[in-house]
TrEMBL record:
<comment type="similarity">
    <text>Belongs to the UbiX/PAD1 family.</text>
</comment>
<dbReference type="InterPro" id="IPR003382">
    <property type="entry name" value="Flavoprotein"/>
</dbReference>
<keyword id="KW-0637">Prenyltransferase</keyword>
<feature type="binding site">
    <location>
        <begin position="94"/>
        <end position="97"/>
    </location>
    <ligand>
        <name>FMN</name>
    </ligand>
</feature>
<feature type="domain" description="Flavoprotein">
    <location>
        <begin position="9"/>
        <end position="179"/>
    </location>
</feature>
<feature type="binding site">
    <location>
        <position position="159"/>
    </location>
    <ligand>
        <name>dimethylallyl phosphate</name>
    </ligand>
</feature>
<keyword id="KW-0285">Flavoprotein</keyword>
<dbReference type="Pfam" id="PF02441">
    <property type="entry name" value="Flavoprotein"/>
</dbReference>
<feature type="binding site">
    <location>
        <position position="129"/>
    </location>
    <ligand>
        <name>FMN</name>
    </ligand>
</feature>
<keyword id="KW-0288">FMN</keyword>
<dbReference type="InterPro" id="IPR036551">
    <property type="entry name" value="Flavin_trans-like"/>
</dbReference>
<feature type="binding site">
    <location>
        <begin position="16"/>
        <end position="18"/>
    </location>
    <ligand>
        <name>FMN</name>
    </ligand>
</feature>
<protein>
    <recommendedName>
        <fullName>Flavin prenyltransferase UbiX</fullName>
        <ecNumber>2.5.1.129</ecNumber>
    </recommendedName>
</protein>
<keyword id="KW-0808">Transferase</keyword>
<dbReference type="InterPro" id="IPR004507">
    <property type="entry name" value="UbiX-like"/>
</dbReference>
<feature type="binding site">
    <location>
        <position position="42"/>
    </location>
    <ligand>
        <name>FMN</name>
    </ligand>
</feature>
<feature type="binding site">
    <location>
        <position position="175"/>
    </location>
    <ligand>
        <name>dimethylallyl phosphate</name>
    </ligand>
</feature>
Length: 210
């Protein structure tokens, strides 16, 4: 799967918010479709991966990604707009990272890479993870949206009738990749209307959509 004579190149960042499995799943799905994955995980993200998935989760991600970067190495390729990428997903995106992006405080590689996406007018998808939200969170979401980012809280699609947490994670991860807008088949299962759902699930009752 190529774009401009090279594979799709996507930056994936994982911060310390809960939901590290979202980032892990996005990396796996992107690699599955033949994309280059440029991975950067904050120190807090590494701790969350270990706590929520397992002590070897970060190591397995390093092996899975096309290239991985030290979160403190602001001299890395993804810190420059001249290094062509097709978009960036931060999953999960902590409120600290969101605030730093909103203010342009590029003091680590994740925030700098995100800032590059915005200045180069590339897709930046933020799976902002926090609840409930205070006014500062909402204002930061407004700011990054005005700059061109897409704020995508990881909200379950209950209308799809997920049977497990893995189903929920899979759908959110697929939707995040689809939001990059790359010329590739959509990964997320689409909603075909209530009748279409019932045709696939005979005996089920009606459900709503987003």
């Amino acid at each position: 799967m190529t774009f401009a004579d090279r594979p799709f190149r996507v930056v994936v960042a994982i911060t310390g918010a809960s939901g590290a499995v979202l980032g892990e799943t996005i990396v796996k799905k992107l690699m599955m479709v033949g994309a280059e994955v440029h991975l950067v995980v904050s120190e807090a993200g590494q701790r969350t991966l270990a706590h929520e998935i397992g002590s070897d989760a970060y190591g397995r991600l390093l092996l899975a990604a096309t290239k991985a970067y030290d979160p403190d190495d602001i001299g890395s390729a993804i810190a420059s707009g001249s290094f062509r990428v097709d978009g960036m997903i931060i999953a999960p995106c902590s409120m600290k990272t969101l605030a730093a992006i909103a203010c342009g405080v590029s003091d680590n590689l994740i925030i700098r890479a995100a800032d590059v996406q915005l200045k180069e007018r590339r897709r930046l998808i933020l799976l902002a993870r926090e609840t409930p939200l205070h006014l500062g969170h909402l204002r930061n979401m407004t700011s990054v949206t005005e700059m061109g980012a897409i704020v995508m809280p990881p909200v379950p699609a209950f209308y799809q009738r997920p049977l497990s947490v893995a189903d929920v994670v899979d759908h959110i991860a697929s939707r995040a990749i689809d939001m990059l807008g790359l010329p590739m088949p959509g990964l997320a299962r689409s909603w075909e209307g209530e009748r279409g759902w019932l045709a696939l699930h005979p005996g089920g009752d009606g459900v709503g959509s987003e």
